[in-house]
Design brief:
The protein is an alpha+beta fold and 128 residues long. The protein has helices spanning 25-40, 45-50; strands at 3-9, 54-64, 73-83, 87-96, 99-111.
Length: 128
């Protein structure tokens, strides 16, 4: 569960008028990659949510190094950097042909159905 690589092809609708991948799309790719990392470990967000645990983004950042373009095949490397009692911190690295395009981080907190913090379920508390 610690590191996973997800391949994503940039779709035309995700680009701006200049042909660049729109910056906001990186956050969507981070979510997709984070979901695949979880799936690799044999879990799904649906199962976690059905059990009453909700993972909400409380911090997200991205540092852009180089642009991506329509039809680029990107590799998003997602790593679990840190796990606390109620939070998970992920690191993202986005590559095209082994060239680093962006580095991001997100922090997710576990809350109950009413939005109150709660401990992460045991299956998510695996330390990196």
């Amino acid at each position: 569960m610690h590191t996973h690589e997800t391949l994503i092809r940039v779709r035309y609708a995700e680009t701006d008028r200049m042909g660049f991948l729109h910056h906001a799309q990186f956050f969507v790719y981070f979510e997709q990659a984070r979901t695949e990392l979880l799936r690799q470990s044999g879990l799904s967000y649906r199962e976690i949510e059905d059990a009453g645990h909700f993972l909400v983004v409380i911090d997200i950042r991205c540092q852009f190094k180089r642009p991506a373009f329509y039809d680029d095949l990107l590799s998003v490397r997602t790593t679990v950097e840190r796990i606390t009692h109620v939070k998970i911190v992920h690191r993202y690295e986005v590559y095209r042909d082994n060239v680093l395009l962006a580095v991001g981080h997100s922090t997710l907190a576990c809350v109950d159905r009413n939005g109150r913090p709660q401990p992460l379920p045991p299956q998510l508390r695996i330390q990196p």
